[in-house]
Design a protein that fits this description.
The protein is an alpha/beta fold. It has 2 domains: 5-130, 3-Layer(aba) Sandwich (Rossmann fold); 156-318, 2-Layer Sandwich (Dihydrodipicolinate Reductase, domain 2). It contains 12 helices and 14 strands. It has helices spanning 15-24, 45-48, 82-93, 111-118, 125-130, 136-144, 154-160, 164-168, 198-201, 215-227, 260-271, 320-334; strands spanning 5-10, 30-36, 60-61, 73-76, 98-101, 132-133, 148-150, 178-183, 206-207, 234-239, 246-253, 277-279, 297-303, 309-316. The strands form 2 sheets. The protein has a 7-stranded parallel beta sheet, covered by helices on one side. The protein has a 7-stranded mixed beta sheet with strand order 9-10-8-11-14-13-12. Helix 7 (154-160) runs parallel beside helix 10 (215-227). It is globular, with a radius of gyration of 20 Å. Bound molecules: NADPH dihydro-nicotinamide-adenine-dinucleotide phosphate and N-acetyl-L-glutamyl 5-phosphate. NADPH dihydro-nicotinamide-adenine-dinucleotide phosphate is lined by residues 11-17, 37-40, 63, 77-80, 82, 102-104, 153-154, 186-187, 189-191, 318-319, 322-323.
């Protein structure tokens, strides 16, 4: 067997970082050589997450303690804004490093859009300009040539995959897209926040970021690319008292000559060779439980009772296809490995 890839995970003491470690442990072409943390530096993974106790793993260290000379691929699972500063130093120290970044720092190609949505000027504009948007099924060819991949957001992966082929085909009206999405709480990360306390979220449901959630900018960017003209969807996220999962219910208007059955045919045809995207039979509704713990997206198309309208529903696990699973999928593409290596597990059920 050829030499394994030496991989480092920055932010391994967080939710997406630990999910990366969980999945990379069963990746046959990878050796985990370094793991970083901030407040938890110095601890072992088993100290932070007892489920790792049976596995031999490097100790959590500060990023500047990692010997980058040993590393081929680095995953960044760090907070927004932190990543662009950290990565400038990391790439300066080792320019031939392959980087898969899970944060939002490099997703928006337009620096002005970044500044508008994130409230500050980007700190690593040259890296932002070279980054490739890592929606694997759509940008695979560009990802295969990339040094820096910007893994998409969880809401966005779930809301882009079912819509982009319909826009490209001209089968839906770009001005009439409404994305109503729900997320589980792990989407907010592991750091303590009052709004994420059990007693603030359990037995309830609420919208947040209404009309201004930052993932709207990613939707604008990718919908517009697919449509070949500016597109601005309505996007409303909701927080639900589940741990994992994104569930997007998307309302669209079909263009003349198209109906819901056509939308279903377009999606089924577009994704028939894609192992991680399943288009269910027309009228069948997906469930978040059927993708939990897996890298799979399930998409359903349902005709509306109102002529000219259709409802497209999509679900994924925010920590897997919405983050760490897609990040490994992108590493596989960047490094020329079979795309499903290490991420082909079936969903956890019940
Ligand atoms: N959660 C999700 O579903 C998704 C998250 N993302 C993105 O992935 C990234 C990681 O998210 P998530 O895992 O949820 O976050 P967590 O809060 O769970 O983890 C953050 C990690 O970053 C470390 N860290 C925090 N501040 C610093 C710093 N200043 N310098 C170095 N390391 C630091 C933390 O270390 P320590 O714990 O030791 O303090 C921890 O390991 C974010 O950018 C997020 O937006 C993307 C898609 C989905
Ligand atoms: C529940 C919750 O707070 N979710 C996060 C989305 C997490 C994610 O996928 O996206 P980023 O990588 O862009 O943070 C939010 O709404 O900001």
């Amino acid at each position: 067997m050829s030499k394994k890839l030496n991989v480092a995970v920055l932010g391994a003491s967080g939710y997406t970082g630990s999910e990366l470690v969980r999945m990379l442990l069963r990746h046959p072409a990878v050796e985990i050589v370094a793991l970083s943390a901030d407040s938890k530096a110095g601890k072992t993974m088993a100290d932070v997450f007892p489920q790792f106790a049976p596995f031999a793993l490097p100790r959590l260290v500060k990023i500047d303690e990692i010997d980058l000379g040993l590393v081929d691929v680095v995953f960044c699972a760090l907070p927004h804004a932190t990543t662009q500063v950290v990565l400038k130093g990391v790439i300066a120290a080792k320019p031939d490093l392959k980087v898969i970044d899970l944060s939002a720092d490099f997703r928006l190609a337009d620096p002005a859009a970044y500044e508008t949505w994130y409230g500050h000027a980007h700190q690593a504009l040259e890296l932002q300009a070279e980054a490739v948007y890592g929606l694997t099924e759509i940008h695979r060819a560009a990802i295969s040539r990339a040094r820096l991949v910007a893994n998409p957001g969880c809401f966005t992966t779930c809301s882009l995959l079912p819509v982009l082929p319909l826009l490209t085909a001209g089968a839906i009206d770009p001005d009439e897209i409404v994305v109503d999405a729900k997320t589980g709480m792990s989407g907010a990360g592991r750091a303590a926040k009052e709004a994420m306390l059990f007693s603030e979220v359990a037995e309830g449901l609420h919208a947040y970021g209404v009309a201004n959630h930052r993932h709207t900018a990613e939707l604008d960017q990718e919908y517009s690319l697919a449509a070949g003209r500016p597109v601005k969807p309505t996007f409303t996220p909701h927080l639900t008292p589940m741990i994992r999962g994104i569930y997007a219910t998307i309302y669209v208007r079909t263009t003349p000559g198209h109906d819901a059955a056509d939308l279903h045919t377009i999606l089924a045809e577009r994704y028939k060779a894609e192992p991680f995207v399943t288009v269910l039979p027309l009228g069948q509704v997906p469930q978040s439980r059927h993708v939990k713990g897996s890298n799979h997206v399930q998409i359903g198309v349902v005709p509306d009772r109102i002529p000219g309208r259709a409802i497209v529903i999509s679900t994924l696990d925010n920590l897997v296809k919405g983050a760490s699973g897609q990040a490994i999928q992108n590493m596989n593409v960047v490094c020329g490995l079979a795309e499903g290596t290490g991420i082909d597990q079936v969903a956890l059920f019940p």
